[in-house]
Amino acid sequence: MAPTGDNPAAVGIRRALLRTTVAAGILTATVLAAPQALVPHTALAASRPRMGECATGELCLWEKDGFKGARRVYDLAGTGIESCTPLPAGATARSVANRTGRPVTTYQSAECEETGEFETYPGGGTWLPDSPYQVRAFKIWES
What we know:
- This protein is an alpha+beta fold.
- The protein has helices at residues 8-33, 41-47; strands at residues 58-64, 68-75, 85-86, 95-98, 104-107, 118-121, 126-128, 137-140.
- It folds into two domains: 4-47; 58-140, Crystallins (Gamma-B Crystallin, domain 1).
- The protein contains two helices and eight strands, in the order ααββββββββ.
């Protein structure tokens, strides 16, 4: 009788086991490397916050978190550079998109005073769905 290693049945079983092991390893690596591949596309889209509409060159402010509610749009043609621009009386914003190409500072104070909260956002495309304070004014900087 031939040794077990030369037995055609044993060789076939080892090959089948090797193929199964390799296939399981590839599947495991795929799942670990890209778990989103197993999640339906619609579920992925629902898990990410939706960005509000804001065109290149604009500063967009929404009254509610998550880019919801009334939207105010400002651009460089109608807004002073390096000057305080308050929102209309009683208006505030909770979401911000800065696509002006310039840094923008948002202020809790309607007079752009630095005694309240304030934060500067780069102009290359900043999206903030939930400001840590109610924005009442802003400044667009030269650069």
